[in-house]
Amino acid sequence: IESAYYLIGDLPTWDFSAAANWPFTTTDGEIFTMTVTVTGLSNWKVAPQSAIDNNDWNVVLGNTLQDQNPAMEGTLIANGGSMTLPDAGTYVITLDMTSYTYNVTLQ
SS3 for 62? Predict the structure, then answer.
């Protein structure tokens, strides 16, 4: 488990320097959360601190199935496909880094 994780994708951008401004929050170092509002379909991945520090796409976390995966939960893997927030709205993204899983809830 890394010390920090960041949202990277259509919101804010697919750029590590901008993603560094979009950290997930944690209180225990295992469960990380973020609330994000999008105006339409938005693809995203999770950049661990090591990806930001080393500009390394190989460690960016995505899903195990496909790019633009609309599933609201799943397993995270390095160099996996992007996840998709399918519609406009406010979402809570939760990462459980003890099991490398994610869950997305539309508010």
Answer: strand
